[in-house]
């Protein structure tokens, strides 16, 4: 169907006009509220309190969400919101990785607030159109789009009955529909979900940016926690923003010269050092596939193992040499010379509704290659790219899909489920056809794919209650916590990374703390106090990126040549100073490192109390599946027997000689679980929380966050 016909079938439900305004030191100083139940559209002022306590980005998103819901609100209630916010630095073009926005909502997987960061053009163009955040609430009766024209100052809500739903088709349709011509496509950004988001709990959001070299609309994902599922439950087909004439000074910064100087310095580092370090401009985050395998950290067969001889088939050089297009500038926002948004062009699909079509596949990222590949024992690069494409266009989180499918595969191989339950699928490890069929079933809303799409937490309950599986064993091997599937790193040998996953607010996502190398490889944080300090600093530091609209990758995926000689190389101090300089240049705020951490602590503790308000967030919720800590099964132990036997001798002071594998597993487990309990105590103390993981009132006062509504939630838990 042609674009004109699609457009002519739109029905205008509401039009709202606004004054364009001007950004001041990174802030538009207002936000946009849209309710798709009653088609109410209005502007809200950004207060000084919001800037002081929540900064922007994730902070604004959580604050609006807090005020929109109650402790009884469920993810699919109309009052649940989706909030998109970029932060005051978002949109500058002089420093790499400044196009990020943060998306917040109540998660269908966890029932608590989830935040997910995403690239693409939507966040910056939303700000330049006049808004620091977009707040979506309500439920439409029929599929609608929300269109923001930042050139003319008009917002519309329109019924959109005929467009596609899947991301790669809908993104192209709407980009063409709302652009004036080919050159104007760069000025249109679209947020969509897909058919898979309608039938699973881990639907994602696709954020577009138009690639003029490939002449295709590319996709970046806000992947975690099922926000795309919320999006489709609200009958939102798309959000669209249009803004022309992007320039480097649209943030009207406090001191443009500082931003320019800092950006030039970092661009030179990327140019000189990337090829000597991580090759981000050739392969992106997939550069570490073989590195993880070499250190026994790559998730293999539902995290049972950490390496596999067939990893050579999916190592980064395979994708570089055979699949990923080289020699193009792959930044997902203007000025990002790291250019890590890689893509495989003209990839011919072998399965599903788009079989035979040649498409552009965005990726693979490391998480996709590990989750869709090694964790499911699919050591086939084309299989990974196919699953990657369909996850994206169906709007299915690759991490949750990969981890949930790996869990189902192990349950199948252990006889917990069978072909009758799977609908005839032989769900063995390595079966690409079965994994692809699960995806297509999620898109169609049928079969065992819908069961897997409910997530591991709900699969565990189903398999125990309906099929008689041992719930304790399912807990041990089900790699989820708080309802969120684990991202793709084996953490058995890193106590700090176990905490980096388990002691998060939202669930086990590595964007808070990735400490494996510091802890396991380099032994830089040997004591509980050292680990606790790292599990304080790094989650707060990483939270800070999400407040300002920054990407994490430029911080440490390329580092200064002399970084290893600094006193704290893991922190990359020169780059930390870069960020402080950029923030000063944009906002005029002269922050120290301690100021930076305090800004993040305010939002982090706010989110912690938000989780408590919604029924999670206490010590009991920080319990983790044992497979994240150590060997669950005989096969796992014996695959690393020499290592584990040595640890029993040296750390537990236990002689394994003559003992059965089962006996050794039990002793090692008792030791490791106790270590995790001691780690929790140390981390809670360092974070200013009590032993039940509740922020102390005096700590809130120290942070200037003793808001009455927060104190009301935790006063009886002190």
From TrEMBL:
InterPro entries: Ald_Fedxn_OxRdtase_dom2 (IPR013984), Ald_Fedxn_OxRdtase_dom3 (IPR013985), Ald_Fedxn_OxRdtase_N (IPR013983), Ald_Fedxn_OxRdtase_N_sf (IPR036503), OxRdtase_Ald_Fedxn_C (IPR001203), Tungsten_al_ferr_oxy-like_C (IPR036021), W-dependent_AOR (IPR051919). Its cofactor is [4Fe-4S] cluster; tungstopterin. Residues 27-245 form the Aldehyde ferredoxin oxidoreductase N-terminal domain. The keyword Metal-binding applies. It comes from the Bacteria. GO terms for molecular function: 4 iron, 4 sulfur cluster binding; electron transfer activity; metal ion binding; oxidoreductase activity, acting on the aldehyde or oxo group of donors, iron-sulfur protein as acceptor. The keyword NAD does not apply. Belongs to the AOR/FOR family. This is Aldehyde:ferredoxin oxidoreductase. The lineage of its organism: Bacteria, Bacillati, Bacillota, Tissierellia, Sedimentibacter.
């Amino acid at each position: 169907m042609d674009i004109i016909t699609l457009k002519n079938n739109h029905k205008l439900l509401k039009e709202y006009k606004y004054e364009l305004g001007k950004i001041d030191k990174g802030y538009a100083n207002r936000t946009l509220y849209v309710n798709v139940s009653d088609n109410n559209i209005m502007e809200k002022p950004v207060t000084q309190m919001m800037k002081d306590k929540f900064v922007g980005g994730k902070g604004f998103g959580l604050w609006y969400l807090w005020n929109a819901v109650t402790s009884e609100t469920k993810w699919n209630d109309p009052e649940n919101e989706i909030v998109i916010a970029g932060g005051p630095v978002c949109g500058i073009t002089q420093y790499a990785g400044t196009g990020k926005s943060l998306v917040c909502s109540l998660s269908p997987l966890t029932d608590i607030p989830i935040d997910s960061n995403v690239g693409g053009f939507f966040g910056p163009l939303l700000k330049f159109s006049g808004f620091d955040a977009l707040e979506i609430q309500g439920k439409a009766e029929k599929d609608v789009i929300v269109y923001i024209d930042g050139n003319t100052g008009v917002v519309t809500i329109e019924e959109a009955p005929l467009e596609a739903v899947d991301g790669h088709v809908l993104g192209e349709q709407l980009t063409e529909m709302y652009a004036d011509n080919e050159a104007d496509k760069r000025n249109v950004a679209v947020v969509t979900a897909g058919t898979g988001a309608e039938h699973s709990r881990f639907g994602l959001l696709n954020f577009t940016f138009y690639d003029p070299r490939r002449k295709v609309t590319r996709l970046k994902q806000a992947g975690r926690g099922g926000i795309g599922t919320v999006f489709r439950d609200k009958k939102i087909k798309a959000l669209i923003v249009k803004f022309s004439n992007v320039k480097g000074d649209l943030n009207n910064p406090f001191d443009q010269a500082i931003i320019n100087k800092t950006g030039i310095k970092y661009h030179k580092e990327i140019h000189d050092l990337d090829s000597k370090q991580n090759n981000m401009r050739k392969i992106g985050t997939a550069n570490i596939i073989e590195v993880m395998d070499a250190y026994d950290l790559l998730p293999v067969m539902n995290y049972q193992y950490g390496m596999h001889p067939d990893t050579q088939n999916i190592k980064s050089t395979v994708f570089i040499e055979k699949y990923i297009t080289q020699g193009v500038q792959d930044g997902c926002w203007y000025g990002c010379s790291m250019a890590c948004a890689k893509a495989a062009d003209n990839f011919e699909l072998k399965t599903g509704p788009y079989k035979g079509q040649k498409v552009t596949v965005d990726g693979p990222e490391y998480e996709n290659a590990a989750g869709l590949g090694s964790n499911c024992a699919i050591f086939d690069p084309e299989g990974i790219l196919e699953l990657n494409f369909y996850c994206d266009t169906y709007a299915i989180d690759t991490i949750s899909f990969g981890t949930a499918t790996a869990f189902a595969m192990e349950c199948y191989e252990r006889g917990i489920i069978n072909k009758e339950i799977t609908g005839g699928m032989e769900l063995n490890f390595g079966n690409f056809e079965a994994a692809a069929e699960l995806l297509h079933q999620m898109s169609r809303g049928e079969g065992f794919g819908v069961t897997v799409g409910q997530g591991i937490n709900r699969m565990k309950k189903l398999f125990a209650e309906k099929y008689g599986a041992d719930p304790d064993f399912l807990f041990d091997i089900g790699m989820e916590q708080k309802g969120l599937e684990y991202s793709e790193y084996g953490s058995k040998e890193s106590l700090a990374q176990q905490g980096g996953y388990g002691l998060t607010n939202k669930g086990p996502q590595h964007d808070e703390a990735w400490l494996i190398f510091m802890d396991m490889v380099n032994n830089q944080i040997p004591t509980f106090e050292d680990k606790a300090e790292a599990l304080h600093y790094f989650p707060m530091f990483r939270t800070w990126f999400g407040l300002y609209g920054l990407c994490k990758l430029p911080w440490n995926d390329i580092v200064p040549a002399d970084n290893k000689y600094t006193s704290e190389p893991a922190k990359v101090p020169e780059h930390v100073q870069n960020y402080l300089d950029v923030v000063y240049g944009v906002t005029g705020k002269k922050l120290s490192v301690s100021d930076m951490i305090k800004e993040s602590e305010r939002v982090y503790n706010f989110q912690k109390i938000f989780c408590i308000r919604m029924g999670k967030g206490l010590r009991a919720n920080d319990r983790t599946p044992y497979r994240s800590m150590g060997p669950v099964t005989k096969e796992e132990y014996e695959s690393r027997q020499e290592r584990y036997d040595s640890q029993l001798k040296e750390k537990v002071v236990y002689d394994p000689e003559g003992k059965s594998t089962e006996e050794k597993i039990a002793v090692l487990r008792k030791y490791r679980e106790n270590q995790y309990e001691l780690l929790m105590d140390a981390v809670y103390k360092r974070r200013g929380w009590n032993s039940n993981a509740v922020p102390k009132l005096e700590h809130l006062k120290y942070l200037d966050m003793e808001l009455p509504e927060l104190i009301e939630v935790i006063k009886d838990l002190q």
